[in-house]
Specification:
This protein is α/β, with parallel strands linked by helices. Helices cover 31% and strands 23% of the residues. Strands 5-2-1-6-7-11-10 form a seven-stranded mixed β-sheet, with helices on both faces. Strands 3-4 form a two-stranded antiparallel ribbon. A two-stranded parallel sheet has the order 8-9. Helix 1 packs across helix 6. It is globular.
């Protein structure tokens, strides 16, 4: 029987940090995963540094049940996603499913709005550490933090360990 490919959801909105979306997407696809970009609307989403990715579906058309992991890139995207009820509900449901959720840089802003950080330990860009603490989470300054199904990293320089942790969490890397 053929092994089913791992399916990864990546949530994006305008002004995402280019490398924090494009690098994990390319890395996971190189390991054999299918990465689906989900947006508030379908079409091309511009990054903050000139890159872009295409959202092929929207939050009202997908369920966490369809995916093995969720990736939340940083930059300005989480700020745009956290005010969308569909994005917030999708993220909350994903965390509650127990499947891996990976957020980098400003990505935890979406987790804050989903109200899923109480009692969790995580990292992020240091600019939102107080927001994490105020949401009930414990902020630590490390390149990678894994707390149950939550995987977090700080900035683009942490992408190598972040990408490997996501792949490991879904069985694509030892």
């Amino acid at each position: 029987m053929a092994q089913l490919r791992k399916r990864v959801a990546m949530v994006l909105a305008p002004n995402f940090e280019d490398s924090e979306a494009i690098d994990p997407k390319d890395y996971l696809e190189s390991k054999g995963a299918d990465v689906t970009v989900i947006g508030i609307k379908t079409g091309t989403i511009a990054g903050k540094k000139g890159g872009s990715l295409d959202a092929t579906t929207t939050f009202d058309k997908v369920s966490p049940d369809e995916f093995d992991a969720l990736v939340i890139p940083g930059g300005g995207a989480p700020e745009n996603l956290r005010i969308d009820d569909g994005a917030v509900a999708f993220t909350r449901d994903f965390i509650e499913s127990g499947k891996p959720v990976a957020a980098i840089c400003h990505g935890p802003q979406l987790l804050i709005s989903a109200k899923v950080l109480d009692g969790r330990t995580l990292t992020s860009v240091n600019k939102i550490r107080d927001d994490i603490t105020n949401a009930g989470g414990t902020y630590v300054d490390r390149d990678l933090v894994e707390d149950q199904n939550l995987i977090t990293s700080r900035t683009p320089r942490d992408l190598p360990v972040f990408n490997q942790a996501i792949a490991r969490a879904i069985g694509l890397e030892a």
